[in-house]
What we know:
By secondary structure, the protein is mainly beta. Helix content is 0%, strand content 35%. Mean pLDDT is 75; it is low at 1-7 and 9-13.
Amino acid sequence: MIYRNKSPLSPTLSFPLADLVEGGFRTDAPKPLNITQPEGPSFTVEGNKVLWQQWSFRVGFNFREGLVLHQVGYEDQGRVRPIIFRASMVEMAVPYAEPRAPYHRKCAFDVSDYGLGE
């Protein structure tokens, strides 16, 4: 069976997602999700730098790795202690021994299957 870009969600996927969900996709609209922070957020964002409680880190993306965190640090007694210089979730392809697409080859974190970092 050959799958052509029939996915209602993403033109980059080469298999119909509805075939993977028993009974197909939901047709009822989800109820609104309202998130409020009456006192404001507990974090600040300055460019690509995020400051949250005593933590600080820089956020980046690239096409090969997707999300990349840089300069993760923790402020302790007025001094920022470096925790991680650079961290990324690089993919790992895993054959699942399932002949049907897309299970014959999926990624461990399924990041590139859905275009994270693109």
